[in-house]
Amino acid sequence: MDLRKLEVFYWVAEFKSFSLAADHLSLRQPTVSAHIRELEQRLGAKILNRIGGEITPTALGQVLLERAKALLALKRETQAALHNFQGRVRGELLVGGSNIPGEFILPRKLGAFIRKYPEVRPILRIGDSAGIVEAVLDGKVEVGFVGFKGGDGRLNFQGVWKDEMVLAVPKGHPWTRLKEVDLSDLKKEGFISREEGSGTLRSFRSLLSRKVKEPETLLNVIMVLGSTEAIKEALIAGHGVSILSRTSIQREIEDGLLKEVPIRGLKLERDFYQVFHRRRTLSPVSHAFIQFLKHN
Questions:
Q1: pTM (2 decimals)?
Q2: 39, 223, 231, 293: most buried by Cβ count inside 10 Å?
């Protein structure tokens, strides 16, 4: 069976999109479709469901997907071993980041890394912290960067960056005229929260639990949104207040769209963690990236 066709199938299933897979593989979309069609003809069965614009593996496709993932991992390991022997840092860098590291920290770090190692091709997966941890366990990324330290013994978590979460309110909000607010004041305003699985939400709850037994009683949650960007847009539109990473709202603060308001007696500091699987040997590319981050 043609490994290239399996690779095409893997990325179509991974992205749930023919066009995104084509972009990733630097192929034309008709070429991607042809590879999938030829695979299905060879197997005599469908490997992808196409229902309502959504692409998912069939039962046979799921079996093939697992084998394709293992073969592609072996391919990467073989290439990495050869490049390592030749003293080169080259190949795909499979990295994952939760919302804040993925959207606001890693793009710049990866850009600096490929300036030093131009033969590296980073592939960045972004999701909530729980999803990125799952991707590391599943082998979809080699190294993840998340907002909490998990307890799974199969994983190695190491603190890499400090972050501070702050109370963010829209311009014109009455609290913008105050030097600080009390923690109890949060109950008086509509609070926009991140979804379960978010490292920001988990860290905020953990810090609040030091003040009260049931942190949820301090908040009047009116919306639960799935990304930091969505929360920022809701805040800018004047729909409530929220706790966000200072890193994520720096531009909006500079532009005067949002304002940071201190909470009396509460400093919301947390760590971002680098996570990788203890039982998998990191590729030379991933190892080089980890070393690069230590010095940059």
A1: 0.68
A2: 231
Two tokens at 113?
Answer: 């890394």
Candidate CATH numbers 2.60.40.420, 3.40.50.1370, 3.40.190.10, 3.40.50.1970; the one for domain 161-271: 3.40.190.10
* Confidence bin at 86 (pLDDT 50/70/90): low
Location of structure tokens 């971002």:
272
134, containing H or E segment: helix 129-138
Tokens, residue 45: 């069965």
Q: Are 35 and 5 in contact (CB under 8 A)?
A: yes
pLDDT given at position 171: 94
Q: Would residue 52 be called left, alpha or beta, if left means φ above 0 and alpha means ψ between -120 and 50 degrees?
A: left
DSSP string, 208-225: HTTT-S-GGGG-EEEEEE
